[in-house]
Specification:
Layout: H1 8-29, H2 35-49, E1 53-57, H3 60-70, E2 78-81, H4 87-95, E3 99-102, E4 125-129, H5 140-150, E5 153-157, E6 165-166, E7 169-170, E8 177-181, E9 195-199, H6 202-211, H7 233-242, H8 246-263, E10 269-270, E11 278-279, E12 285-289, H9 295-304, H10 334-342, E13 343-346, H11 354-367
Parallel strand pairs: 2-3, 2-4, 4-5, 5-8
Antiparallel strand pairs: 1-9, 6-7, 6-11, 8-9, 10-12, 12-13
This protein binds pyridoxal-5'-phosphate.
């Protein structure tokens, strides 16, 4: 049996007429850049997030970069974030000339540990960038309380968390602004690169909208130096078709996650756990192997049997070659480093069948000698 980590083919087959129609419409109208498709999707995505504004941009990385700029964060500043994330989180902070300051994670949620944030605050700290890893919102009440006390901005990296909730509120309105990726494999993905900045702050929304499009005010008048970071019409049209399905797809992921948890009950692995009050969206279904198992060998065994597995993430940011200049040694963030050696992600999506899940568990048992 072949079970991909992400099954975009089956998803497309289920919505093919809608997607094909939207693509044809964009071509017929030649609305390739900005225009109606982008504006309509922005409105729909803001509503989905229960936020005032969504500004479509070229990628999740672009969203992080532009949100940092829009909040006035730049050289000389520091931004606190987690080292246990996709590289783009730290990269965007560095791209605006700012120093990422890493804070270790909570061993249960894998999200930034609020207990450790205050010790990392300096006179240069401007913002906290929590990541809602694997689709589980970070502990935002505590993070926001710390931010308020110290006058810091909170920018959510919500690239894995479209549709998740924290105490009833959607990712997207849990801080001052939030950054989403529509990379194809994300919970809401387009057929190329795309992203959005979501906020309730009209000034931030306006600034991001200007910066993504060469600092333009009108066609030929440029207010400031900006960037080419627009969302294109084809991607917006595809996202507009997929968005109404997202809550169902996320519910399907939760259903599959609950079934995995039952099937894993007697195995030497820790299934994902989430905070009370959190509704996760399982961008990844990431389990942790108990001590004594060779994670890479288990991953290889699953791969050899045709199962798409991932490791999110094998190298924490502070140990990446690109961040050698920060001079952070192995041992600096022990919880992140330990997680990076023990986690693996199993296939998860709404379309995953019982039969496929049973096969994944059968092969996993083999790999664990159970
Ligand atoms: C995917 C992702 C990004 C970057 O998004 P792109 O659209 O690929 O640029 C940033 N942060 C996290 C946590 C991600 O998972």
């Amino acid at each position: 049996m072949n079970i991909p980590l992400v099954d975009l083919k089956t998803q497309y087959q289920n919505i093919k007429p809608e997607v094909d129609g939207a693509i044809q419409r964009v071509i017929d109208n030649t609305s390739f850049i900005m225009g109606k498709e982008v504006a309509q999707f922005e409105k729909a995505f803001a509503e989905f997030c229960e936020a005032k504004y969504a500004v479509g941009v070229s990628s999740g990385t672009g969203a992080l970069f532009l949100a940092l700029l829009a909040h006035g964060i730049g050289p000389g500043d520091e931004v606190i974030t987690t080292p246990f994330t996709f590289f783009a989180t730290g990269e965007s902070i560095s791209q605006v000339g700012t120093r990422p300051v890493f804070v270790d994670i909570d061993p249960v949620t894998y999200n930034i540990d609020p207990d450790l944030i205050e010790a990392a605050i300096t006179p240069y700290t401007k913002a906290i960038m929590p990541v809602h890893l694997y689709g589980q919102p970070a502990d935002m009440d505590r993070i926001n309380a710390i931010a308020r006390e110290h006058g810091l901005i909170v920018i959510e990296d919500a690239a894995q968390a479209h549709g998740s909730r924290y105490n009833g509120q959607r990712a997207g309105v849990l801080g001052d602004s939030a950054c989403f990726s529509f990379y194809p494999s994300k919970n809401l993905g387009c057929y190329g690169d795309g992203g959005a900045v979501v906020t309730n702050d009209p000034e931030v929304a306006e600034r991001v909208a200007k910066l993504r499009n060469h600092g333009r005010m009108t066609k030929y008048e440029h207010d400031e130096l900006g960037y080419g970071h627009r969302l294109d019409g084809l991607q917006a049209a595809i996202l507009g078709v997929k968005l109404p399905h997202l809550d169902d797809w996320n519910a399907g992921r939760r259903d599959r996650a609950a079934r995995y948890a039952d099937l894993l009950a007697d195995l030497p692995v820790r299934p994902p756990e989430h905070l009370p009050g959190v509704e996760p969206v399982y961008h990844c279904y990431t389990i942790r192997l108990e001590e004594g198992y060779d994670r890479d060998a288990v991953v290889q065994h699953l791969k050899d049997a045709g199962i798409g597995v991932g490791v999110h993430y094998p190298i924490p940011l502070h140990l990446q070659p690109a961040y050698r200049f920060l001079e952070l040694e192995a041992g600096s963030f022990p919880v992140s480093e330990s997680a990076s050696n023990h986690v693996l992600s199993l296939p998860i999506y709404a379309e995953l069948t019982d039969e496929q899940q049973d096969y994944v568990i059968e092969i996993l048992k083999e790999a664990l000698n159970r």
